[in-house]
Write the structure tokens for this entry.
Amino acid sequence: MMTKAKLREQIISHFNKGELRSLCFDLEIRYENLPGETLDDKARELINYCDRHGILPTLIHRCKELRPNISWLEDDKILPLLHNTEKSREIDLELGVTPVEPLSHISKRTTLPGLAEVSQGYPHFQLVLRNSSLTPTKHIKLHFEFESFQDYSFRDAAKSDIERLSSPVVKISDGNPFKWQNNKDFVFNGGVDWLLYPNENAIFSFFLKTVMEGQPPVPYDYHFRCTAWAEGIKNLVQRNLCIRVVRHKIKL
């Protein structure tokens, strides 16, 4: 079985100082804050840092991507290396929604929001799944269901809105692996090969429209429920989510 010492040997054998600095950058770790001066020192402290923060699997995964021809540790053999083995076995998933924004912005969020405000003219949004565990998570299944909509002002809708109102339609954006079941239900089954690594976020893009061609969704709150399940998880993760469509803002 691979030990941390073996992992250190592999890193110093296949990365120079500049490449190790780039590896730290990819993991959002400050290379200059790692103790030591030599390549050996930096590699050792990088492994210790990743172990303490529960991201050792992420380090190994990135090493695999950068050096695919090297025999790195397999995912099911990572757990014995972790600093806290019992905690590392706990599966912790988070769910949230955001407007369309870069993954780097989402990664900086300490918590995932349950409400996202989008423009009536561009009613696109992102369902976000985060692995807050200390171990890679697989066999992930998601059920995303549209439930209802209402006027977010909690007042009667304007008559013109009622006259224009048609049932909202939820659509899957290009590249989204969710499968459409009907207008209200979408499912995702990641299987054994789809892994979500510690502190990693998966983004699934959707948008709202209506059955009326060219008619944007009415400015309402659109309510969804999402359920997540993964291998080894103790309880299903469920969260009520809301997409708030706001009117076009006209710049004078």
User: Anything to note?
Assistant: The chain has two domains: 4-86, 90-246. Confidence is low (pLDDT under 50) at residues 83-88, 156-160. The first helix runs from residue 4 to 14.
